[in-house]
Amino acid sequence: MNTIDTTKLADRNPAVRFRLRKLWLLAHRWLGLTIGLVFVLIGLTGSLLVFDHAIDEQLNSDLLLTNRSGQPRTVAEIIVAAEAFYDDGDKQALSVSRPRVDDGVWTVWFAGGTDQSPKYIAVHVDPYSASVTGQRVWGEDLMSWIYRLHFQLVAGRIGSIIVGIIGVLVLLSIGSGVLLWWPLWKHSWRAALAIRRGRRFNYDIHKTFGIISASFLAVITFTGVYMEFPAVFRSIAGVFSEVSKEPRDLTSEPHESRKPLSPDEAITIARSTFPNAKFDHLHPPASENGTYEVAFRQPDEVQTSYGRSQVFLDQYSGRVLSVRSPADFSAADAFFAWQFPLHNGEAFGLMGRWAVLFFGLTPALLYISGAIVWWRKRRPRRSKNRPSSGQSTLVKSVADTDGARLPPAKELVSEATR
Questions:
Q1: Looking at 288-415, which runs of residues are DSSP E strands?
Q2: Considering only CA atoms, which of 402, 403, 412, 397 is closest in space to residue 191?
């Protein structure tokens, strides 16, 4: 039985090509009008979050910055100070993270709330005086609330699913926009990229900035979808490459004659595994049989904001139980490790961050310009705006801001033989 190749049919038949383009136009238009406003919100909040820590430090300098006076205290002293200050829920620290900047504070994390509504509390400690500068619940201060708005619309897991689905639809919208733009490029670079004054201005802004930002927005959106549905991507990646897992069943062997290692001793022992790496964070043992997890960031790691080189130690003997290093990552592991640095631009340094900030603003520009174009398309066309019979209707229908109409037969013939 013979099958019909719709692509070849469209290439040979301008009427089919026109109808297919009209379908893409409808998809692009209604995807933009329905999900576009949420995408604008996600883009604007994402631009703010590119430099979230720096903004937070400026807004809360008394809490997050110090005057760097005195001798640095040990990590053990930092944890003791935080545990003495924290007065709600489990007293034992979950983790401790080094200062982000030279004049920054240590952050010690605790679990609070209930099983139904867990909370994570950050206690900030001056690294020189070991005095607590304050504590905050994650998601309740301004920048972490904006983070919740960005990735879950402040609606928990349901919000995360909605954002992920919107991300998939945005990828379809970006693809349809590229398909609609492509005939302009085939016609001439001027038609594809020029921004003209007058009634075409909003359309030209939309198509020019749309194509310039398309690849960047696609990467940012795709990485965002991954972070909303990591389990789905890991399942798919596992078909093609091994996906390593963080060790979960490691235990320490208690010794009557040995005291548990201090956090500083654990860091010193773990550092021998990664001598050229920078300490990033530490998870103390959660029980008598628990282990130390000490994380470092090696110079060649793609993510600068989080160390992925991990050493797991017996809390009594200091014996190395397991090591995870990006140098040993599988293809799938490396793919996953790149997603967040691509999403916020840190994979390409300061310029990458500024690029993500800029392209996070473009959804607002595209939504406004696209909405204006759509609104004008709803008005009756004036006779003076109708194309002459000598114009290429296919190209005209792509560039026209006032709407598209099915070209007459003689123009289809002209388009097919041109």
A1: 291-297, 309-314, 320-324
A2: 397
Neighbours of 299 (CB within 10 A): 7
The CA distance from 335 to 331, in Å, is 6
The residue assigned the tokens 């390593």 is 244
What's the rounded Cα separation, in Å, for the pair 218 and 170? Answer: 8
pLDDT over 90 (residue 193): no
Q: Which residues of 122-143 are buried (b: 16+ CB within 10 A; e: fewer)?
A: bbbbbbbbbebbebbeeeebeb
CA–CA distances in Å: residue 401 to residues 198, 368, 374: 11, 14, 8
C-alpha 249/C-alpha 246 separation (Å) is 10
Q: Which residues are paired to 312 by β-bridges?
A: 293, 322
Q: How many CB atoms lie within 10 A of CB 265?
A: 17
Helix axis angle, 52-59 relative to 142-152, nearest 10°?
A: 150
Distance CA 158, CA 152 (A): 7
User: What is d(CA 133, CA 123) in angstroms, rounded to the nearest whole number?
Assistant: 8
Beta strand pairing status for 132-137 and 118-125? antiparallel
Q: What counts of helices (H) and strands (E) characterise the chain?
A: 15, 8
Nearest-angstrom CA–CA distance, 187 and 194? 13
CA distance 51 to 357: 9
pTM of the entire structure?
A: 0.83
Give the pLDDT score at 125.
Answer: 97
List of residues 6+ apart from 13 with CB closer than 8 A:
416
The closest alpha carbon to 397, from 406, 389, 388, belongs to 406
Cα separation, 20 vs 10, in Å, equals 8
The closest of 412, 386, 32 to 207, measured between CA atoms, is: 32
Cβ atoms < 10 Å from Cβ of 115 = 5
Contact of 216 with 290, CB cutoff 8 Å = no
Which amino acid does the sequence have at 348?
F
CA distance 253 to 317: 8
- The 10s digit of each residue's pLDDT in 21-69 is 788 888 888 999 999 999 999 999 999 999 999 999 999 999 999 998 8
Task: Report CA-CA distances (Å) from 346 to 41, 309, 339.
Answer: 21, 18, 10
Number of other residues whose CB lies within 10 A of the CB of residue 118: 10
Nearest to 72 by CA among 123, 109, 126: 126
Q: Which two tokens stand for residue 252?
A: 């320490």
What are the φ and ψ backbone dihedral angles of 47, each rounded to 5 degrees? -60, -40
Separation CA 123–CA 93 (nearest Å): 10
